[in-house]
Design a protein that fits this description.
This protein is an alpha/beta fold. The chain contains 14 helices and eight strands. Helix 11 packs antiparallel against helix 12.
């Protein structure tokens, strides 16, 4: 019994520290810093869009981008029609984009298409574009996006992640829950870290880079090249800053099958990148006394929100059923931990003044946590057999 008590205390302390850490960062996300007014358009942007069989949505995305409240001569829209079997290239050109067609034996996914597109942008337009913005083929962009990025670049930012909002939350339970989780995550994870001088999340969409950063570090390939690039940026002491007023609207998977394939790829990709960078980040963070790198390592090492939730429930039940009444304080302690985890996404939704249905969607979170945990277990079992699969985008 003494051994069980020791293990219970040890697990409790670990989870307690993890919950404390995410709440400290969440509280830091309360404040939103306003941008200076009246910045003159100066930065010339290359807008890069990778597209594989996206004829249904690419035209609308380009039309929306052309409505930017920014000087038209200061941005160009580039599309990489990546091994398309439909009319993506023709539609992109018809709507006014500069489109390059990529034909290869192996697809390689979004990362390979972007690397290929960047080579053409930088080689053919040397030094013309000071910054590059990446959007997915289905993204609908707020008209003030480029103007906001112009201001952030003028303030000295190297990489700026815009706010990613789910555009099809009304198409089912999964998109609704994804909207709620994404909204809370942007405010608590990205805004909180950005306010503390740490690195926000790299969403792979609605993100802006100084051209010199991409020329130096590239984009990367793999199942989750955006996650991998975030860690490489941190190792190079470059942080991703979050900007909530630069908004891109993208679709979430509607069916469980679509979501499963996407999440399986994310789970395997993040696992591979985490194994590659966790030690480097810890060692370099300690050597350079860099909280940026240490936080990068902690974001890898700390159990996911789902893992913390499931483990806390199991420990609560175990403490209640197994431990003697003299140790009943642990039961109450686990109840407090679960309460803090339960309130965490609602705190983010409250800060964002989200609608009531978003809070209801989060109530189904425990089911999602179980599903997500199973996905991560499956990703470990399948290993290298997981490949990049296109997520279907629908015309809205």
């Amino acid at each position: 019994m003494a051994f069980l008590y020791f293990i219970s205390i040890l697990i409790f302390l670990v989870i307690c520290l993890c919950v404390l850490y995410i709440w400290i960062i969440a509280i830091a996300g309360i404040q939103v810093v306003e941008l200076p007014a009246g910045t003159v358009p100066k930065w010339r942007f290359a807008i890069a869009i990778p597209a594989h069989d996206e004829q249904e949505v690419i035209g609308g995305t380009i039309d929306q981008l052309k409505k930017q409240g920014y000087r038209a001569d200061l941005f160009t829209i580039f599309v990489a029609a990546d091994n398309c079997t439909d009319q993506t290239a023709e539609v992109a050109r018809a709507h006014g984009a500069m489109c390059f067609e990529r034909k290869t034996a192996e697809r390689g996914g979004k990362g390979a298409a972007l690397i290929w597109l960047f080579d053409r942008i930088f080689q053919e337009q040397e030094d013309e574009y000071l910054a590059v913005v990446i959007f997915d083929a289905d993204t609908r962009v707020d008209p003030g996006f480029l103007q906001v990025m112009n201001k952030r670049l003028e303030c000295g930012a190297n990489v700026i992640q815009g706010k990613h909002v789910i555009s099809n939350a009304d198409q089912g339970w999964f998109p609704a829950l994804t909207w709620a989780m994404m909204t809370a995550d942007c405010r608590l994870f990205s805004q909180g870290r950005s306010n503390l001088g740490l690195s926000a999340r790299h969403m792979g969409d609605s993100i802006c880079f100084r051209s010199q950063v991409l020329k130096s570090l590239g984009w990367g390939e793999g199942l989750t090249e955006d996650y991998d690039l975030r860690l490489r940026l941190i190792l190079d002491s470059i942080r991703i800053e979050y900007e909530p007023t630069a908004i891109g609207y993208g679709q979430a998977p509607v069916t469980w099958k679509e979501a499963e394939m996407q999440r399986l790829r994310w789970a395997r990709g993040t696992l591979d990148s985490s194994r590659k960078f966790r030690r480097k980040l810890l060692v370099e963070g300690a050597r350079q006394r860099s909280w940026l790198m240490i936080d990068g390592a902690l974001s890898i090492l700390i159990p996911s929100f789902s893992t913390q939730g499931i483990l806390s429930i199991l420990m609560l039940l175990g403490s209640w059923l197994i431990l003697p009444s003299s140790m009943s304080w642990l039961v109450y302690a686990w109840v407090v931990i679960l309460l803090l985890l339960f309130l965490y996404p609602w705190f983010g939704l409250a800060l964002e003044k989200s609608p009531g249905w978003a809070y209801l969607a989060v109530l189904s979170g425990p089911l999602f946590m179980i599903w997500r945990t199973l996905i991560h277990l499956l990703a470990r079992i399948k290993g290298k057999n997981i490949v990049w699969v296109r997520t279907q985008h629908r015309k809205l």
